[in-house]
Amino acid sequence: MKIDWPEGKKFAFTIFDDPDSQRLADGRKVYALLADLGFRTTKAVWPLGPVREPNSPGDTCADPLYREDAIALQELGFEIGYHNATLHSSTRAETIQALDAFRQYFGHDPVSMANHYNEEAIYWGPARLSGTRRAIYNAVTLGRTRNRHFGHVEGHPSFWGDICRERIRYCRNFVFADINTLAECPGMPYHDRDRPYVNAWYAASEGSNVARFTCTVAEAHQDRLESEGGACIMYTHFGHGYVENGEMNSRFRHLMTRLSRKNGWFVPVGTLLDYLREKHGDGEITRADRARIERRWLWEKVFRGTS
Ligand SMILES: [Zn+2]
Questions:
Q1: Domain of 27?
Q2: Does the predicted TM-score (pTM) go above 0.90?
Q3: Separation of 232 CA from ligand 1 center, angstroms?
């Protein structure tokens, strides 16, 4: 499937950056580079600060400087995304408070989100998969994520599925090794009738830390993304190794500079997905298509350790 990209662009490339372990000073360096190179990507935030023991390091919008920085990025054309309420599990009331804070800071509800490994993560852990593939996932992961995520479970104190459906357009699920995310998941963004609290799902390409990111966007892969006319949504945490002791990773800088010189459409995740949705129409995924994507993802998860 070939997409006609806007403005005569040859392919699309963007990033969804989860805030785990990201400190303001390091994040600023990464975003200054992306902004200079002409990328406009998606930076996810935690709207609230912690009130219990955090399960991850990282800064949140409770810090006014961090918040102002995120607002300035939004004004530059970056998208601010959502990564659950904060860096620990939250109740339904706390999630509502977080989304209200997000709206207050950024002037609107989040367009796109990705789950953090909190209790209120939605359709997460084994619920990412269906049928026998769920059983295989549980066996392979030794049941580690079983009964840990409840965002979609009505009656649970962390349930917020109805609110997610009301206020958020896109949620990330599967992550693949290939740079061309759209080739792996051609129907994205898609609705899944078996997971109705999410309006539409998107997939991403593996880049959870700087080593994996630079592997996925290596020269030959960039060139192939371009020649295939595809679309890449990189999954990453800019807090994981991109800036060490104040120094930007040189391989990352080199690869992003190289990519920026190509004729790509470098818009945020929400903008890219809105465009694809316009092209595809309503996008209900068939069970057969979903089963194919699940099999592919599970295979990569087991043999390649993707996210
Ligand atoms: Zn996270």
A1: 7-304
A2: yes
A3: 20
CA 36–ligand 1 middle distance (angstroms)? 26
Asked if 40 and 98 count as a contact pair (C-beta separation under 8 A), the reply is: no
Which of these, 192, 218, 145, 197, lies nearest to 293 by C-alpha position?
A: 192
Q: How far apart are CA 164 and CA 277, in angstroms?
A: 19
Q: What is the per-residue burial (b if ≥16 Cβ within 10 Å, else e) of 69-93?
A: bbeebbeeebbbbbbbbbbbbbbbe
Asked, for residue 141, whether it belongs to a domain, the answer is yes
Number of domains observed in the structure of the chain: 1
Instruction: Please tell me the distance from the alpha carbon of residue 284 to that of residue 107, in angstroms, as a whole number.
Output: 30
Residue type, 204: A
CATH of the domain at 61: 3.20.20.370
The whole-number mean pLDDT for each consecutive block of 10 residues of the chain, a chain of 307 residues, reads 91 98 97 98 98 97 98 98 98 98 98 98 95 90 88 98 98 97 96 97 97 98 98 98 96 98 98 95 88 94 83
Ligand 1 centre to CA of 77 (Å) is 23
